[in-house]
Amino acid sequence: MYDRLKEVVQRLPESPGVYRFYNDEDVLIYVGKAKSLKKRVSSYFSKSTGVNRKTLKLVSEIERIDFTVSNSEFDALLLENNFIKQNQPKYNILLKDDKTFPYLCILKERFPRIIYTRKYLPKQGEYFGPFSSVVAMKNVLELTRKLYSIRTCNLLLSETNVEQKKFKVCLEYHLGNCKGPCEAYQDEKSYLEEIEQARNILKGNLSIVYNHFTSQMKTAAANMEFERAHFYKEKLETLERFQSKSLVVNKDLTDIDVCTITSTESYAYVNYLMIREGAIIFSKTMEVKKKLDEPDDEILSFTAFELREQTHSQNKLILSNVAITLLEDKVENVIPQIGDKKKLLALSIKNALELKREREIFREGKKSKQKEVLMILQKDLQIQHLPNIIECFDNSNLQGTTPVASMVRFVDGKADKKGYRHFNIKTVEGPDDFASMKEIVGRRYKRIQEEAGKLPDLIMVDGGKGQLSSACEALKELNLYGQIPIIGIAKRLEEIYYPEDPLPLHISKKSPGLLLMQQIRDEAHRFAITFHRQKRSKVQLKTEMEGLEGIGQKTTVKLLQHFKSVKKIKEAPFEEIEKLVGRKKAEIILGIKEKEVK
After folding, report:
1. Range 167-176, long-range pairs (CB < 8 A, 24+ positions)
2. Does a structural domain hold residue 420?
3. Among residues 180, 204, 228, which one ends one of the domains?
4. How many CB atoms lie within 10 A of CB 277?
5. Last residue within a domain, chosen from 313, 343, 358
6. Which residues in 399-484 belong to E strands, given as ranges?
7. 327 and 197 in one domain?
8. What pTM was computed for the model?
9. Which PANTHER family does the entry link to (predicted)?
10. CA-to-CA dists, residue 151 to 111, 277, 334, 445, 534, angstroms
């Protein structure tokens, strides 16, 4: 296989672009970008590569290589980003964040309101943000409303409605927070002037607002209008109080993004700050799980691009602690060494380190709690060793058809999904759960013996005395019986059965040990059912497609991977099937459900 792939690599261009690796099921497992496709992809297959086991595992799964050429390395980054978002390959880092950021929006309407929202709909109005928290956003909105008389009602203030005097002023008018545009007490021109000033605050241009109020105060004082001068003085004090909360460095530092990273062997911690006039107007710190021991500069380049896209940042300067190699045109990356920019960088790194410390404490606490649960389970089951590795088996069949089985593996109380296994029943005919259990337990531990692998500390069987006895027979044939604790857990009363003991053990329903065993048993059942459904679906599709000329196994697998079930294939429009397998095959496939071709 490697020889065939190396031949493919030799034919790759030296151009920048995106490469894609597919496994033997034609599933996309990794997307990468490159300045030179040929050099980058060939590095995976050279003798000097394979420095870590994760990359070796990736390479061992590659069955097919595809690529797309781009004009530049930055275009390749955009393309890579799209592929990752659409396909979520298992070996690519993926920034998951279910939270949507809050925004402030000046609505497109007569006498515009300023509202806060989490939906970004550009046609609705002019958006400002995003804000790192609702509290930060509300502070800005509160400042805007203290400084300017912006209406908060949702009345439709059209010229006709105002002229016909359809509305009356509300309490906000009497409190001095609104000047009453609903009754034409304020004209549209003066209202829009206030909106324009408020826009500067929302943009973070506080110095423009500060200079405006200072000028108005001095003019009023010069004209002996002391009450008016005091009015503007109060607004200046409000502005200064707000500014003092978020001022970090000098006001000359504006329109800057700061991105820093610190990492461990398995995780990276990235902090992102958006700076406007010396104030932090947005901050986000996130954890990134490494998939292939990616270097810090690669993670930071990808993360910085993603965060700038999320926040709609147009800033042309990015400060960072490691070089960001892929940037848009006219965007500069600087690693500051001294001065206020260095202070900003230090603040960002401090935030990243704080998240790292917090997550490590959390993981240690979680590990300690899981160990406590395992100790309770050890005591409940009265076994000699702590059950750090638990394997659980389950069978699945429907009226005797397509019998399959599954095994799930839990390590330190957590699901180890890489250790999960599916089994097709090979030696048993018909719905015989006991014989099936004996077969899969025997196959599992015979293989571990042959490969000198690590045996579990506890074996669980989903079922009662019958399934447990069958599993024990398999262990006896392998000379493992008595070396590994084995139990059966019956669903109805959650009874625990031991080998050669006619009476079950009843553990307290509130015991964390029993709850863990229930979780493991339910996961084994879910895993078996899922595999069984997939198997049935494949058999059904194969049966329906038998005799159709031009439809082979690869086409069948591709259809199932895309549509997930036979029902969805039948319901799919012709165009969608055609796009996946071509017009000719689509016409043949649609012939299953309708005799005439569209």
Report:
1. 176/149
2. yes
3. 204
4. 21
5. 358
6. 401-411, 414-415, 421-424, 458-462
7. no
8. 0.53
9. UVRABC SYSTEM PROTEIN C, UVRC/OXIDOREDUCTASE
10. 8, 28, 43, 73, 58
